[in-house]
Every structure is written in C-alpha cells, then in structure tokens.
C-alpha cells in the first residue's frame, strides 16, 4: 500500500516540479558566527516546491542554527533567505511555515483540542478555520477521542503524532521536520511518512533533518550534508551515490572458479553471489569478459552503490567531532 | 498584535480555569472574614468572662463596694473577719479565682505592696484591669480628701486633639495623615506581595515553557517579545481578577455577616476591647470613621493601580528573564531570583521608614527609583508629596519598565532556547546589552 503510494507520489511530483520555475526557498551564503565558533559558515542551497530535502550532519554541525534562521527564530549575521521569490520576512512568512523541532514539546496541562486550535491560530488561522482543520486532522489520524485529554496523559508516540498534526495545521508551504520519527512505532511512522509524501505531492516543500540515513534514502530526493558549519555535500540522493560509488559489484554465477590474475578483487562471497571491487584502470565489462573467458554462466551482475550511511561516515570521519552539545542559540 | 492577544487570552484562561485558582480565590476571603469574626467573637466572650476575686481591703479603698465592676467583667467580694494568711491559703477552696490583698496605707502617699494571689500567672490584661480599678478608687479617695467631686474633676480634665493643617504659600489644607497613611501603607504592602507572588508565577510559567520544550515551537510562530509580554499581561490580568473577586467577596461577606451573627455589629467592637474605657474606644472608632471619610480615595486608588501595574510589569519582566535562563533545577532558580528579590525587600524596608520620616532623602530617593518606587511611594503618598516628585516617579517607572522590558526580552529570547547549560549573571548581562 505504502509502496504504491510512493510510486504515485513520485510520478506525480515530477511534472509538478517543472511547472514551478521559482524555488520555494533559496538560502544564499548564510552565516551565523558565535564568539566560540562558526555555527553556520557560508551555506547556500535551494529548495523546489514539492521536494523533500534531507538536511544531514553530525551533532553540533550547525543544523539547528540553520533551521532556526530559516524559521525566523534567529537572524543571520550575513546572507539572504529568499522565500517564494521574496526576501524572507518572518512576521509574514511564518504563517506559511510549519516547524517541528527536535526538542518536541507541548503545554502539558492543556487540553489537546484547545492546544491544537491555539497553535493554529497563532499561525494566523481564524477560530473557525482552525477548528475545522483540527477536526479534519484528528479524524484522519484517529485522534478524535483525545480532544479533552491533556498532553501529559498521552504516550510519547501519541504526543509525537499530535506534534506532527500541529505542525501542518496551517497548510504550510515549507515544512521543517527535525527527527519526526523518533519514538514512533512502525505503524505510526508509516502513517506520518505517508502524510509527508501527500503534503509534498500537494506542493509543500519539506526539509527533513535526521541522523537516520535509511530514512533519508527512502524519503528524500535531495540532500545536503553539513559539518562544522559548512556544507560539504549537495545533490540528489542518486547523484550523491553515483558520486561516491567505489566500483563495487555483485555477480551471481553458476559456479565460482578460483580467481587468479583478475581485473578485480573479491571482498565478499556467499553461495549466491560474489561481491567484488574492480581494480584501478578496469571497467565493469572487464569483469564480465574475465568470467566469460572462464566459461562460467553469469546469472546476475549489478553495481552496488554506497549507502548514505557509508558516505556520511566517510565524509564526517576524521573531522573532529564539532561540539559537545547543541545549545547554540543567541 | 493579534498574536499577543491570543497569548494573553491563553495565559489568562489557563490560570483562571484551574481548580486551584477557584479554591484560593474563594477560600481566601472566607478565611479572612472567618478570622476577623473569630477575633470579634473572642473579644466578646472575653468580656462575659467572670472572675471571682476575694478582697481583703485593709486600707478601705473601696468602702466595701467596687464601682462599675460590671464593666470589667470581674466580681469583687469583700471578706471581713478572716486573716489574710488564712484566705491566702484557702481562697480556691472558698470558691474564688483570685485573692486581692490591700494592706493599710496612706492614700496621699504612693501606694504599694498590694498583692494579687492566683494559682497560675495572671494575664497582663486582667492585671491591668485590676490595677485600673484600684487606681480609680485611690484617685477617688484623693479627690475626696481635697474636696473635689468627681464631676468637678471631669470638668477640669482636658482631652484635646490637634488638627494638622498644611500651610504652603497661600494654600491651606487639612493633613490627612494617620488613617489615610495607614490605608496607603496597606496598599504598598499589597503591591509588595503582588510583585512577589505574581512575579514568581510569571517565572514559573516561563520555566514551564522552557522545560516542556514548547518554547521553540512558539517562537517559530510568535516573536519572543510577544510571548513574554503576553504571558506577563495575562498573569497580571489574573492577579487583577483575583483582587477584584476578593474585594467583592470580602465586602459582601462583611455586609451579610451581621445578619447571621446577631449582636455582631461595628458597635460591638469597642465594647469587646479589654480596655473597658468605652468612651475612649468609641472616640477612636469615631476618628477612624471620620478618618476613612477624609481619605482621598481617588488619589490612593489611582496611585495604587498605577504603581501596581508599573511595579508588576517591571518586576515580571525581570522574573521572566530569570525563568528563561534556569533549567529544571529549583535550587538554581532560587539562587538566580535572589538579586531580584533584594530591591523588592529593600523597597519594603524603605516604605516602613516612610511612615516616620516621609521626607528623608532615603525615602525620597526610594520613591523615585523605579525598582523601589511602587512600594515606597505608596507609603509616602499621604504625606503631601509634591506633584513634581509624583510625576517624576511615575515617569521614571514607565521609563524603567520600558528599559527593563527591552533588556530582559533579549535575555529571554536567548535563554528560552538554551538547554543543558548553566547560565551566569555575567552571561545574562552580556546578552542584555548585545546588539540584536
């Protein structure tokens, strides 16, 4: 069900992109320096309407500072933020942004229905519209019966769902989700994932910040990687994987003859396949020719692209861990 | 602007709807009135208490009879034909509570050596009652010895009260110090209490937002300044609501109380006093009554509202700043709050001085300085404060509030998003004066 949904989303999202020539968000040479460190040091990127954008980086890389500037919580020291073609004005544009911070929180003693309406009205919705939207989302997420409960009476997962709903109540054009799946069970994770696709399909741009690389690979179409305040990687998920591929292939053979003097080295093998890395100066065709010459039946041959996790570790590895805690503010 | 109203509305409704608000708001006046009623009741029961006193009057001060004995609630019985020593041993068995022994004396000389025997120590009240009775008797004897009747003596006695008129240039007016300054002092104390209670409430509200981590969601929708001011104004409105309800309830209860307890009315209070000097107490009540009439209520209430709002807003913004920088730690909060408590307490101390020395330099300074003026000026207001000083004080309070709101807002916006780090006063001051 979910898979089908993904396919539909992807296929519909592509033409939508081409309709909009203007970016939803352009971040240009953004800088935020603190006395002790450069939290964000000359970061630029663009975000198209309907795209799901992964913002990656180790703890203390400057992601939170970057996000806080995009949500208008902090003012950049230098650089520009262009929102829907115009210079970003937090007072006005906040109404079109939904932000779910990593440190999630709601008023513990407040009733859930009242709280959702309050947060929606702070985004500029009228009481009637807010009520209607809250009802719509509560029904969609099967939360109607919670209306008069207090947040403190909800489980962590339920709070997370509520937090997501309050983030998207104002029908934002830009949704920023910082670790939206933490503490959610697989069923609710899928529910929210599906909604993220739906919202993107309707044209919302989504910035998705997480440490969970498998989620990024699954959800995002574009990523940037930030470390120590600087952007060290920018591209589509498949493009980045292509960029970092290491000539590793898997091959399935009828029989695995001993290998000598081959254009590759074997780095793994089981009954069904062999994982090999092609040596410098050779191409994939050389592998096939080698085995064809050996008269072995070839059943499958496929390139193995690096996972984002591998790329992440490779790029961040060796750089000293930036800061101990993410209390960068001001 | 619309957003700040929403914040105010939430902060207000959340608190007013709380059960604890309803309880304290309704219970406090009931407790106050019950306490008040209990005092009156105790006072009244005190006067009906009968003490049986055995008297051996060897000086014959009383001629065997105590005048006005009814009034002081004691029953004097004169014993003849028994030796003082035997009565001293047996007065309890004879059915008396006390034994008063008056040895022979020359009444024109200083009286002495009069003894009151009891089983347990007597109260100061009772002792002074008995002393007054004896003094009256000695006075009467002395009057008789110089051939003056009691009426003549009364006509000689004088009891003037002087009126304090203020003469400043051509203007002449009656000073209303006294009762009025008492009322003003009470208002000053009220402001002191409000600033502490509701200031702390603001601090706790800010801490709640920070600890529950909703602050970041909030500031992505509203400006931190709007969030802070919305909270302060909302809580200030809660305070006003609570006071309004209290005043109405206390007034209402005092009005209906006499219908429930017959005989309990204002005239019962002076009689209840242990003094038994009915004329004096009634006179005091009378001065109270005229005093209350002469209180310039418009000035007092006007100043009260102004200084309440100014003082609350100023201190609430300081409390909000402190709330934004502390983490979950109560002890840390207390340490950080101490520097704010200091000027409030200092203001209270200066106000008590304002009663005795309303025009001393310290009091004048205290009534102008914005951190102390809300409390001090209320204590001083009835002592003919020059208009120029009053206006300066008010102006400084407004400016002080604007300055502190501006500085604390900068601390607040940094503090509420900072987790897991202990913030020092030095850092807070650096944030406050940083360009934004």
C-alpha geometry of chain A: elongated
Structural class of chain B: alpha/beta
**Succession of helices and strands of chain B:** HHEEHEEHHEEHHHHHHHHHHH
Number of domains of chain A: 2
Straight-line distance between termini of chain B: 21 Å
What proportion of the residues of chain B form beta strands (DSSP E)?
5-15%
Number of helices of chain A: 11
Shape by Cα distribution of chain B: elongated
The tally of helices of chain B reads 16
Tell me the number of strands of chain A.
Answer: 14
Helix residue percentage of chain A: 25-40%
Q: How would you write the strand order of the largest sheet of chain B?
A: 2-1-3-4
Radius of gyration of chain A: 24 Å
Main beta sheet of chain A, described? 6 strands, mixed
Query: CATH architecture of the largest domain in chain A, please?
Result: 3-Layer(aba) Sandwich
The helix content of chain B is 55-70%
Name of the level-1 CATH class of the largest domain in chain A:
Alpha Beta
Keyword list:
heterodimer; A: 330 residues; Rossmann fold; six-stranded mixed sheet; 14 strands; 35% helix; B: 436 residues; alpha/beta; D-Maltodextrin-Binding Protein, domain 2; four-stranded mixed sheet; two-stranded antiparallel sheet; 6 strands
Produce the secondary structure layout.
The complex is a heterodimer of chains A (330) and B (436).
Chain A: H1 2-19, E1 25-33, E2 38-47, E3 52-56, H2 63-70, E4 78-83, E5 86-87, H3 90-93, E6 97-100, H4 112-122, H5 127-140, H6 156-168, E7 174-178, H7 186-201, E8 205-209, H8 213-219, E9 222-227, E10 230-236, H9 237-243, E11 248-253, E12 264-269, E13 274-278, H10 284-293, E14 298-304, H11 308-316
Parallel strand pairs in A: 3-8, 3-9, 6-7, 7-8
Antiparallel strand pairs in A: 1-2, 1-4, 4-5, 9-10, 11-13, 11-14, 12-13
Chain B: H1 2-16, H2 19-48, E1 51-57, E2 74-78, H3 84-90, E3 98-102, E4 115-117, H4 124-145, H5 150-156, E5 165-168, E6 171-174, H6 179-211, H7 215-219, H8 224-260, H9 268-272, H10 278-294, H11 297-325, H12 330-356, H13 361-368, H14 373-380, H15 387-415, H16 425-432
Parallel strand pairs in B: 1-2, 1-3
Antiparallel strand pairs in B: 3-4, 5-6
Helix pairs in contact in B: 1-8, 2-8, 6-8, 6-11, 6-12, 6-14, 8-11, 11-12, 11-14, 11-15, 12-14, 13-14, 15-16
């Amino acid at each position: 069900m979910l898979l089908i949904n993904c396919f539909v989303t992807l296929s519909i999202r592509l033409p939508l992109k081409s309709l909009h020539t203007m970016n939803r968000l352009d971040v240009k040479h953004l800088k935020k320096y603190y006395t002790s460190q450069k939290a964000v040091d000359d970061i630029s990127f663009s975000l198209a309407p309907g795209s799901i954008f992964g913002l990656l980086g180790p703890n203390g890389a400057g992601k939170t500072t970057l996000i806080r500037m995009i949500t208008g919580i902090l003012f950049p020291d230098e650089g520009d933020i262009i929102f829907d073609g115009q210079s970003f004005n937090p007072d006005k544009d906040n109404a079109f942004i939904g932000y779910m911070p990593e440190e999630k929180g709601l008023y513990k003693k407040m009733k859930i229905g009242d709280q959702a309406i309050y947060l929606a009205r702070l985004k500029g919705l009228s009481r009637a519209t807010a009520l209607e939207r809250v009802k719509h989302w509560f029904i969609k997420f099967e939360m109607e019966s919670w209306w008069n409960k207090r947040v403190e009476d909800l489980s962590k997962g339920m709070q997370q769902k509520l937090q997501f709903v309050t983030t998207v109540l104002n029908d934002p054009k830009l949704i920023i989700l910082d670790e939206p799946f933490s503490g959610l069970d697989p069923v609710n994770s899928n529910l929210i994932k599906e909604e993220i696709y739906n919202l993107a399909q309707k044209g919302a741009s989504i910035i998705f910040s997480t440490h969970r690389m498998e989620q990024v690979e699954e959800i995002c179409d574009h990523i940037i990687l930030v470390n120590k305040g600087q952007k060290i990687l920018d591209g589509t998920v498949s493009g980045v994987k292509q960029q970092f591929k290491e000539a590793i292939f898997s091959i399935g053979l009828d029989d695995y003859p001993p290998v000598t003097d081959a254009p590759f080295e074997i780095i793994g093998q089981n009954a069904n396949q062999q994982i090999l890395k092609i040596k410098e100066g050779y191409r994939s065709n050389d592998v096939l020719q080698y085995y064809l010459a050996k008269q072995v039946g070839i059943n499958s041959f496929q390139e193995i692209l690096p996972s984002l996790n591998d790329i992440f570790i490779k790029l961040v590895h060796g750089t000293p861990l930036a800061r101990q805690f993410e209390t960068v503010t001001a | 602007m619309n957003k700040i109203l929403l914040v105010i509305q939430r902060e207000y409704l959340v608190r007013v709807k709380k059960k604890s608000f309803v309880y304290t708001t309704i219970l406090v006046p009931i407790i106050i009135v019950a306490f008040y009623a209990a005092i009156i009741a105790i006072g009244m029961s005190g006067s009906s208490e009968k003490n049986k006193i055995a008297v051996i009057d060897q000086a014959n001060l009383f001629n065997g009879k105590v005048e006005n004995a009814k009034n002081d609630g004691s029953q004097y019985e004169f014993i003849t034909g028994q030796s003082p020593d035997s009565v001293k041993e047996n007065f309890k068995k004879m059915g008396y509570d006390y034994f008063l022994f008056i040895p022979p004396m020359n009444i024109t000389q200083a009286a002495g050596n009069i003894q009151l025997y009891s089983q347990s120590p007597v109260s100061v009240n009772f002792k002074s009652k008995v002393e007054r009775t004896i003094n009256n008797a000695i006075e009467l004897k002395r009057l008789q010895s110089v051939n003056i009747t009691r009426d003549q003596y009364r006509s000689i006695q004088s009891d003037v009260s002087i009126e304090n008129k203020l003469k400043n240039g051509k203007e002449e007016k009656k000073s209303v110090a006294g009762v009025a300054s008492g009322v003003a002092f009470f208002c000053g104390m009220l402001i002191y209490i409000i600033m502490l209670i509701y200031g702390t409430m603001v601090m706790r509200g800010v801490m709640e937002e920070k600890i529950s981590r909703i602050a970041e969601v909030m500031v992505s929708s509203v400006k931190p300044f709007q969030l802070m001011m919305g909270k302060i104004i909302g809580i200030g409105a809660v305070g006003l609501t609570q006071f309004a309800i209290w005043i109405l309830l206390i007034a209402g209860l005092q009005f209906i109380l006499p219908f429930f307890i017959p005989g309990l009315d204002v005239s019962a209070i002076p009689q209840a006093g242990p003094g038994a000097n009915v004329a004096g107490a009634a006179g005091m009540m009378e001065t109270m009554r005229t005093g209350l009439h002469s209180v310039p209520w418009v000035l007092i209430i006007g100043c009260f509202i102004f200084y309440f709002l100014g003082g609350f807003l100023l201190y609430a913004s300081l409390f909000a700043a402190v709330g934004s920088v502390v983490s979950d730690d109560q002890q840390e909060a207390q340490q950080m709050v101490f520097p704010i408590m200091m000027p409030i307490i200092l203001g209270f101390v200066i106000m008590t001085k304002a009663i005795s020395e309303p025009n001393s330099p310290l009091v004048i300074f205290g009534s102008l300085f914005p951190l102390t003026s809300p409390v001090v000026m209320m204590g001083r207001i009835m002592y003919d404060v020059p208009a120029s000083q009053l206006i300066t004080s008010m102006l400084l309070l407004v400016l002080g509030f604007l300055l502190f709101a501006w500085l604390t807002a900068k601390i607040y916006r940094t503090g509420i998003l900072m987790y897991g780090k202990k913030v020092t006063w030095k850092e807070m001051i650096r944030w406050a004066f940083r360009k934004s």
